[in-house]
Write a structure and sequence with these properties.
The protein is an alpha+beta fold. The chain contains 6 helices and 19 strands. The chain folds into 3 domains: 105 residues, no CATH class; 149 residues, Jelly Rolls (Sandwich), CATH 2.60.120; 149 residues, Jelly Rolls (Sandwich). Helix 2 crosses helix 5 and helix 4 packs antiparallel against helix 5. It starts with a helix and ends in a 10-residue tail after the last strand. Bound molecules: heme C.
């Protein structure tokens, strides 16, 4: 009996020694773990948001300071939780990319906790060596905006005037260059003239001389069709969306700009509340020494579709399948870009090697016409000779698809216009060299 009492006292004593201080320690820990802006949130915003949300105005507001972020905290909580922002559409469980930008589940949760506990500011330098300051944010602004490192600049022949208010515009522009000799491109940059209105742009190259008259024509104007008769030298050279300002080809490679090239580019303008204008242009830098490896474009397009005709019937969800020709050499992929319009919902591409291996290329489970990016692989991606590239795309031509431009769905087929459809997969590659798969891009 007595020994029992003693042992109980003993246990209580032990508990007092061990647990009392521990509990106190824990509450101290919780205090220092309070989620605040400078300690936890600034670094997330700097890495994942500030590259677009800065003073250059590519995104509608800056997210560079505590005030910028805290004053919109609920909105930020919403767009990050729903993964609307940062806008990165490819599934990174399928394949990784050099330019991937997604928040981890922990980061999303951290933002939620920060908001629900009152969006504390914290202190600027809470941890030693913590470099998170507003200045660093600004340094993180896209370098391409201020860089004057280019050889030629070609643009619209005259500014495009936006007269109709509150309406989206899709226009084609002609930018004549007519270069004397073929040259190798090191980088291509698109510079939107009116940053508030230019939403995205696609640049193509023409050597036929037959496309000049397309200048300024609306994509919805049927006159566009008469320019679609001859194949372009480069159906697709570069696609610009905010955050995808330029493409720089890897060291030792370059993309050929054919002799006598002119550019056409289409621009998607957001609805404007005021009469305004735009003068956008393209900047190109050529390689300064001869390149060892030429970047080639492999485009899978509507002719590669196995289940033609490419018509998406009204009120139906349809899936189309394309396959490339069998590769006749070993190649190393650099980047990949799927393209569809407003009815597009999902896109997936992979390659099958002759030994039966599957190489996963891209999976976009929730296609968004507004965020068509070029996805650059982390390393050169090797595909052996004999491989075949497959792609499948799903289109939703029902009213369930909120982007369907036709409130009364109608049959939709191929065309350049945004209300027509396309199915493209644009891949940049070079001929394979042993060791490429370990070279970062
Ligand atoms: C690739 C560029 C880019 C990145 C990165 C980016 N944004 Fe955006 N963001 C935009 C653009 C452009 C818009 C305006 C167009 C739109 O809403 O689609 C926008 C809109 C927003 C909006 C307003 C949404 C609305 O419906 O009006 C919020 C809030 C926002 N971003 C927060 C963030 C946060 C938070 C991050 C980082 C976690 C982030 N963004 C990362 C480009 C970007």
């Amino acid at each position: 009996m007595r020994s029992n009492l003693l042992s109980i006292l003993y246990i209580l004593f032990i508990q007092f020694i061990f647990f009392y201080p521990t509990t106190e320690l824990k509450s101290q820990e919780v205090k220092s773990q309070e989620v605040n802006y400078y300690k936890d949130i600034a670094v997330i915003v700097k890495t994942h948001c500030a590259p677009c949300h800065n003073q250059e105005g590519l995104a509608p507001f800056s997210l560079l300071s505590y005030e910028d972020v805290a004053s919109r905290s609920n909105f930020i909580g919403y767009v990050t939780k729903t993964r609307y922002m940062p806008p990165f559409k490819a599934d990174i469980a399928f394949q990784h990319y050099k330019n991937e930008n997604t928040l981890s589940a922990e980061e999303i949760q951290l933002i939620q906790t920060w908001i629900s506990t009152g969006s504390a500011k914290g202190q600027k330098k809470q941890r030693k060596g913590d470099p998170v300051t507003t200045d660093i944010h600004q340094k993180n602004a896209p370098e391409s905006i201020n860089v004057n490192d280019y050889d030629i600049s070609v643009g619209m022949q005259k500014a495009f005037k936006i007269n109709e208010l509150g309406k989206e515009e899709f226009r084609f522009f002609y930018a004549p260059l007519n270069n004397g000799a073929s040259k190798m491109i090191k980088s291509i940059q698109f510079v939107p003239g009116n940053k508030k209105l230019v939403h995205h742009s696609r640049i193509m190259t023409d050597t036929t001389g037959s496309i000049a008259g397309i200048d300024g024509i609306s994509e919805s104007d049927t006159a566009v069709y008469k320019f679609q008769t001859k194949p372009l030298a480069d159906n697709f050279l570069f696609g610009w969306v905010p955050g995808n300002d330029k493409i720089v080809f890897p060291e030792g490679t370059g993309k050929k700009l054919f002799q006598g090239s002119n550019f056409i580019f289409n621009v998607h303008y957001s609805p404007s509340p005021i009469i305004s204008s735009d003068s956008s242009f393209i900047r190109i830098k050529f390689t300064d020494k001869p390149v060892e490896r030429e970047v080639i474009t492999l485009t899978l397009k509507e002719d590669n579709i196995a289940n033609l005709p490419f018509i998406i019937k009204a009120n139906q969800v349809a899936t189309f399948y394309m396959r490339s020709a069998v590769l006749t050499q070993d190649i190393s992929l650099i980047s990949i870009m799927p393209h569809m319009h407003l009815l597009g919902r999902k896109f997936k591409a992979f390659a099958a090697t002759p030994s039966g291996d599957i190489v996963q290329l891209i999976n976009i489970p929730d296609w968004d016409f507004n965020w068509q990016m070029t996805y650059t692989f982390q390393n050169y991606l090797y595909l052996p000779k004999g491989s075949v590239i497959y792609a499948e795309a799903q289109y939703d031509n029902t009213i369930q698809n909120e982007r369907n431009p036709n409130k009364q769905p109608k049959d939709v087929g191929y065309g350049w216009g945004t209300n027509d459809e396309m199915m493209n997969l644009v891949i940049y590659y070079v001929a394979y060299k042993p060791g490429d798969e370990n070279k970062p891009l």
